[in-house]
Amino acid sequence: MTNVPPPDPDSSRLGFDELLGIVIAFATIGTILAVTLGQRDKGFNLSRFLNFDANNRTTSPIGKLPSFNASPLPTVTPQATPLPRQEAIPPSPSASPTTPLPTSPLPTTPEIPAATPQKLSSSIPVMVPAAPKAEASPAQTPVATATPIKFTDVPQNLWAHPYIEALAARGIVSGYQDGTFKPGGSITRAEFAALLQKAFEQKPNLQAPNYKDVRANSWALPAIQESVKTGFLRGYPGNIFRPNQPISRVQVIVALTNGLGLNATPASQDVLKTYQDADRIPNYAKVPVSAATKAGLVVNYPNPKTLNPNRDASRAEVAALVYQALVQSGKMEAIPSQYLVKR
Fold first, then answer.
1. CA distance linking residue 56 with residue 76, whole number of Å
2. Using CB atoms within 10 A as the burial measure, which of 68, 276, 280, 321 is most buried?
3. Could you give the angle at the alpha carbon of 142 between the alpha carbons of 337 and 163, nearest 5°?
4. Which residues pair with 248 in a beta bridge?
């Protein structure tokens, strides 16, 4: 039988180690409370520190603590991550070390001006504008040039070749853009007025009416007015000029006779008998035709004795008649021709 020692009367007292553990525990709790109360204004979250769960129960062995309202944590603005260190660029001598270098402006695209109608440069070939439908334009009227032209449709054996070549050399007539002259083509009254303006330098002594059928912006208006003021051309009754009408042979002869002021004596029947078709000459044209025949202006192809007064004049015939008028004025040398009517 084992003898059990009697109970120690001091065994119910706490030992030194137990007391030290209790003091440390209370000291720890006190420290936590002090830190918590001190960090309250800074949003210290005690529940997170003590690992509270959703029911405000702590999993810490300390036990359940009273809940208290902790201020939310202050919002912390994340700082920009520093860029990797790069090699320093030496500042410009004129730049201040505390002043950032100016940023170079981005290159701007030059503004493209709006398209506006511009005059063609002298270095660009100028094309003749298209002719308007309502009225003939300079595109239809050959532009005169002082340089002699060799027209592709005016051969050496053409009866009007010497007249056309001579007028082209003086810049009085010219061809078309394709290099042709179109000697057999007709010519309008407006085009004939422009030809008279280039060929003659008569002084205006008459008044030109405002023709109803000649627009104020018409290309032919200056030539028409000059041809009327110098006495070459006349209009029709009612201030009508008919600029787009092909001009007849007799009208060309009458215009040249009037413009040059040839002697308008009563028509000689002997002179008019020169033409086999004299009966077709209008009454108003008999005196001028007689004067033009005497002055050597009339050229008839292919038969010198046939005038064909009422037929539309061709461009070749107009060139021959105008050339003979310049010969009569002393501005051109006479050209021998078998088609020239002589009296």
1. 27
2. 321
3. 10
4. 312
